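Ticket #4471: structure export looks truncated?
Reporter: QA, pipeline team
Priority: medium

Steps to reproduce: submit the single chain below to the structure queue and open the exported record.
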Amino acid sequence: MATISNRSHYEHTNSPKKILIVIFLFLLALSASAHAISRHGEAALQASDACSNNPVLVAINPETCRVAIVGETQEGKYAISINDTDGICITCFIKEKLQSLAQVKNYLLNRGYIK
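Actual output as written to the record:
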């Protein structure tokens, strides 16, 4: 006698579509946190705006499951927003010393976001 299972073999996979949906939800939930504003001031608000309106890179830290969203400000500087697994902004800031996207990628690589 055959047994019928309701579980799909796709149930536990992380398809690209699911990952894009999660990233989209992170972008929607992106806002400056209290920590970001208290530590980085007005720059945190500018960073949040850049990451929301002009994202150029999204990276996930596989160890913490945090998401780094990189945005470019109107002045051409790079902003980084770090979000938790629920899409809540932990911190966001502008990296004044990072002048190119390659430097930003290296910064994220050193912090475990890019493997």
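Status: closed, not a bug. The export was complete when the record was re-opened. Leaving a note from the reviewer for reference: The longest strand covers residues 89-95.
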